[in-house]
């Protein structure tokens, strides 16, 4: 399911950190990388050859680093709007996922990563794995990937997209046997207490079903959590506890129990999560 992954680079030291993180993806079956440097030259037409030559040496060095990690590598340097160029390259190579870093200043040329990742999440046709690269005071970067698949958090709104995300999580579990916490957030609303109790009972029933499924797929331990609050805030709060190494969630969706669009939650989590997040797109 994760055999071929597109890795984004802007040739910076932050990109080198992202390259180091790629080895973790071998744990979920990755064998091939499409190393992609997107170039947007609207303000400098006619200089394509110059920028390609400038990029080539760094990309070759990064390619060598990836090959030393035991994966095969294809290098791509598409032109165009960054998120569009990445998306089209992902489709061209039929990749399993897009791996992109976040550090607030742009891991891709001529664009802040916040806007690039947001645009990718909005238009994504492939799963997007977003990981935060910590910018230290002295201008260096810290690898925050660690053991990426040590323990997973799966926030669900019981939508079709969340169910699709569960399929991807199941593959990760089968490859890694990682512990998982399955979480559903109920928003507080004024209304009939009997309706609230029914919502809780329904949610617990669905959470238990997902727990059994992940246990059958080989997870070392599955915990369920039913919490009250704001879905985005609760998800972000959980990533800050230091317990979870990755979040797997749907990029869009609408809950069958509560009227919350997971898409808006995903955007907030993308901006603020303290751990890598794998966003799964809906079926289109």
Strand content: 15-25%
- Inertia-based shape: elongated
What's the CATH superfamily of the largest domain, by name? HUPs
From the 3D structure, determine the CATH topology of the largest domain.
Answer: Rossmann fold
Physical arrangement of strands within the biggest beta sheet: 3-2-1-4-5-12-11-8-9-10
Number of separate domains: 2
Q: Between the first and last Cα atoms, what is the distance in angstroms?
A: 18 Å
Order of helices and strands: EHEHEHEHEEEEHEHEHEHE
The tally of strands reads 12
Structural class: alpha/beta
Rg calculated over all Cα atoms = 19 Å
Can you give the helix content as a percent range?
A: 40-55%
> Based on the structure given, which CATH architecture of the largest domain is correct?
3-Layer(aba) Sandwich
Unreliable spans: 104-113, 253-262
Please work out how many helical segments DSSP would assign.
8
Helix/strand layout:
Blueprint: E1 4-8, H1 13-21, E2 32-36, H2 48-68, E3 72-76, H3 82-93, E4 97-102, H4 113-123, E5 128-132, E6 134-135, E7 141-142, E8 152-155, H5 160-176, E9 180-186, H6 193-216, E10 222-228, H7 231-239, E11 246-250, H8 262-272, E12 277-280
Parallel strand pairs: 1-2, 1-4, 2-3, 4-5, 8-9, 8-11, 9-10, 11-12
Antiparallel strand pairs: 5-12, 6-7
Explain this structure.
- Strands 3-2-1-4-5-12-11-8-9-10 form a 10-stranded mixed β-sheet, with helices on both faces.
- The protein has 2 domains: 4-142, Rossmann fold (3-Layer(aba) Sandwich), CATH 3.40.50; 152-280, HUPs (Rossmann fold).
- Helix content is 40%, strand content 20%.
- With 284 residues, the protein is an alpha/beta fold.
- The protein has helices spanning 13-21, 48-68, 82-93, 113-123, 160-176, 193-216, 231-239, 262-272; strands at residues 4-8, 32-36, 72-76, 97-102, 128-132, 134-135, 141-142, 152-155, 180-186, 222-228, 246-250, 277-280.
- Helix 3 crosses helix 4.
């Amino acid at each position: 399911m994760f055999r071929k992954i597109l890795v984004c680079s802007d040739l910076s030291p932050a990109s080198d950190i992202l390259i180091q993180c790629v080895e973790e993806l071998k744990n979920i079956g990755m064998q091939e990388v499409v190393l992609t440097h997107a170039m947007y030259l609207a303000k400098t037409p006619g200089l394509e050859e110059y920028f390609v030559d400038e990029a080539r040496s760094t990309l070759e060095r990064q390619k060598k680093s990836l090959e030393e990690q035991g994966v095969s590598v294809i290098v791509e340097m598409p032109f165009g709007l960054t998120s569009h160029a990445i998306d089209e390259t992902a489709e061209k190579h039929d990749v399993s996922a897009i791996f992109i870093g976040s550090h607030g200043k742009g891991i891709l040329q001529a664009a802040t990563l916040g806007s690039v990742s947001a645009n990718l999440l909005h238009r994504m046709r492939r799963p997007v794995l977003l990981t935060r690269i910590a910018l230290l005071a002295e201008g260096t970067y810290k690898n925050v990937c660690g053991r990426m698949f040590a323990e997973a958090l799966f926030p669900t709104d019981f939508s079709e997209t969340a169910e699709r995300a569960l399929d991807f999580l199941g593959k990760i579990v089968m490859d890694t046997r990682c512990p998982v916490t399955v979480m559903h957030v109920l928003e507080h609303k004024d209304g009939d207490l009997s309706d609230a109790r029914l919502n809780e009972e329904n949610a617990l029933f669905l959470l238990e079903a997902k727990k059994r499924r992940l246990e059958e797929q080989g997870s070392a331990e599955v915990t369920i959590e039913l919490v009250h609050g704001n879905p985005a805030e609760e998800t972000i709060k959980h990533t800050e506890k230091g317990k979870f190494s990755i979040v797997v969630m749907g990029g869009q969706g609408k809950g069958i129990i509560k009227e919350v669009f997971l898409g808006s939650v995903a955007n907030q989590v993308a901006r603020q999560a303290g751990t890598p997040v794998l966003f799964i797109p809906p079926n289109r």
